[in-house]
Write a structure and sequence with these properties.
Layout (H helix, E strand, L loop, with lengths): L6 H10 L9 E2 L2 E2 L2 E2 L1 E2 L8 E2 L1 H16 L14 H13 L6 E3 L3 H12 L8 E5 L4 H13 L4 H4 E4 L10 H10 L4 E7 L11 H10 L3 E5 L18 E4 L14 E4 L45 H17 L1 H26 L4 E3 L12 E5 L3 H10 L2 E2 L1 E3 L3 E4 L8 H18 L4
Parallel strand pairs: 4-15, 7-8, 7-9, 9-10, 10-11
Antiparallel strand pairs: 1-5, 2-3, 6-12, 11-12, 13-14, 14-17, 16-17
Helix pairs in contact: 1-12, 2-9, 3-9, 4-5, 7-8, 10-12
Bound molecules: pyridoxal-5'-phosphate (PLP) and (2S)-2-amino-4-(2-aminophenyl)-4-oxobutanoic acid.
Cofactor: pyridoxal 5'-phosphate
InterPro entries: Kynureninase, PyrdxlP-dep_Trfase, PyrdxlP-dep_Trfase_major, PyrdxlP-dep_Trfase_small
Keywords: Hydrolase, Pyridine nucleotide biosynthesis, Pyridoxal phosphate
């Protein structure tokens, strides 16, 4: 990819961008009347303009039908999630019956571990990435304790080699083989939240299956960001949140994937009536009979307003086309990488070290920068100029231009400000 370090080049790229008009479908936060530079889709995606309309529509049905809204009307709420599964399936590389939306992410991690963490005899350990998002660490730790194991013994973490920032697939495979007699489950992120590294999910899944372990992924940072093929890779289960790259409201509804090969097995699960066979759910019979597919893992009544926000956003995805979004994302993040290298050149040293892999296959929108010094000061100065990425302790700035609402100009504005702030802070000697 050829890039040029000028505002004119960024503007030209925006003009040629076929997804450019999608920015108009989002509400971009403003400061003193001017749109800010928002580069934080890795934490909370922005609000699509149609979200309010989708939610209002459900408020109208509620007003009009009351409880009958579940069964009657234009879109009975009992089946409201079905269209969401249809919209989600291509984004996750799944069959619609293998996905559903429910609860929040950490809750789903727990529910899926109830089903897919099946410790037996000496095979009771879980392999995970070192430095996983804390909620995943706490969930896994509490699950192994709940089953009566000692977390220090039952959880095996894989860390990058000394002096390296990201994990090598060969080291993950080596760990899997080393512990092949002990591993019951491999539970990895699809993308590490801190480094932005995409893991080789296909290879990890195969290696896990080869040693008789089940394999699941937390796709919080991957869903709606990078392409995945959960069905073809034969991943056993996965879950994700919808509030990052899928722009479906703060704390918005999460999603799960269960591979169809598990549908017939009588897996243990924490059941609730919303997972009961849909056509007999209101018979109120004794004895749980799950609905076929991922829906059988649902527990509680659908939160329709959250689902409405999710549907609104997925409709925008459908219109834009995920493959088009990914193609733009690779260019946008490539431009960001190029400009950060230019900043380093202008500063005469690698002041900002990009720890996210260089290969586009191994990263999504996000780049993570380790600041040589004064990282927090630099981050705060960016925020003061209404340039929003996020800061992760101890020394990383994460920046994520996303294809639906970010522009090449946003990326240019970030790099421009980064250089200006760094030059001001740099001791003159
Ligand atoms: C990898 C990962 N796991 C878990 C969470 C927490 O999810 P939730 O608070 O929705 O349960 C996040 C983000 O908040 C995350 O990035
Ligand atoms: N749910 C949140 C609520 C408040 C602030 C941040 C979050 C995030 O999602 C953080 C994100 N998971 C991260 O990768 O840091």
């Amino acid at each position: 990819m050829q890039f040029t370090n000028t505002l004119a080049f960024a503007q030209q790229q925006d003009q040629e961008d076929e997804l450019q008009h999608f920015r108009n479908e989002f509400l971009i936060p403003k400061h003193e009347g001017k749109e800010i530079t928002y580069l934080c889709g890795n934490s909370l995606g922005l609000q699509p303009k149609n979200t309010r309309q989708f939610i209002n529509e459900q408020l109208d049905y509620w007003e009009k039908y009351g409880v009958e809204g579940w069964f009657d009307g234009e879109q009975p709420w009992l089946a409201y999630h079905h269209e969401i599964s249809d919209l989600l399936a291509p984004i996750l590389g799944a069959k619609p019956i293998e996905v559903t939306c429910m609860n929040n992410l950490t809750i789903n991690l727990h529910l899926l571990m109830v089903s897919f963490y099946q410790p037996k005899g000496k095979k009771y350990k879980i392999l995970m990435e070192g430095g996983a998002f804390p909620s995943d660490q706490y969930a896994i730790e509490s699950q192994v304790k709940f089953r009566g194991y000692n977390a220090d013994d039952a959880i095996i973490e894989v860390f990058p080699r000394a002096g390296e920032e990201t994990l090598r697939t060969e080291d993950i495979l080596e760990k899997i083989n080393k512990h092949k007699k002990e591993l019951a489950l491999i539970l990895f992120g699809g993308i590490n939240y801190y480094t932005g590294q995409v893991f080789d999910m296909k290879t990890i899944t195969k290696a896990g299956h080869d040693i008789g372990a089940l394999v699941g992924f937390d796709l919080a940072h991957a869903a709606g960001n990078v392409p995945v093929q959960l069905h073809n890779w034969e991943v056993d289960f996965a879950c994700w949140c919808s509030y990052k790259y899928m722009n479906s409201s703060p704390g918005g509804i999460s999603g799960i994937f269960v591979h169809e090969k598990h549908f017939e097995a009588d897996l243990p699960r924490f059941a609730g009536w919303w997972g009961y066979q849909l056509d007999k759910r209101f018979k109120m019979d004794k004895g749980f009979v799950p609905e076929k597919g991922a829906e059988g893992w649902q527990v509680s009544t659908s939160p329709i307003l959250m689902m409405a926000a999710h549907k609104a956003s997925l409709k925008v995805f459908e219109k834009a086309g995920f493959a088009n979004m990914r193609a733009k994302s690779i260019r946008l993040t490539g431009f960001l990488e190029f400009l950060i290298q230019q900043v380093n050149e202008a500063l005469g040293e690698e002041f900002f070290k990009i720890i996210t892999p260089k290969n586009p296959e191994e990263r999504g929108c996000q780049l993570s920068l380790i600041c040589k010094q004064d990282g927090k000061l630099i981050f705060d100065a960016l925020v003061k100029q209404q340039i929003i990425g996020d800061w992760r302790e101890p020394n990383v700035i994460r920046v994520s231009p996303v294809p639906l609402y970010n522009t090449f100009k946003d990326v240019f504005a970030f790099a421009d400000a980064l250089l200006e702030i760094s030059l001001k802070l740099k001791p003159t000697n």
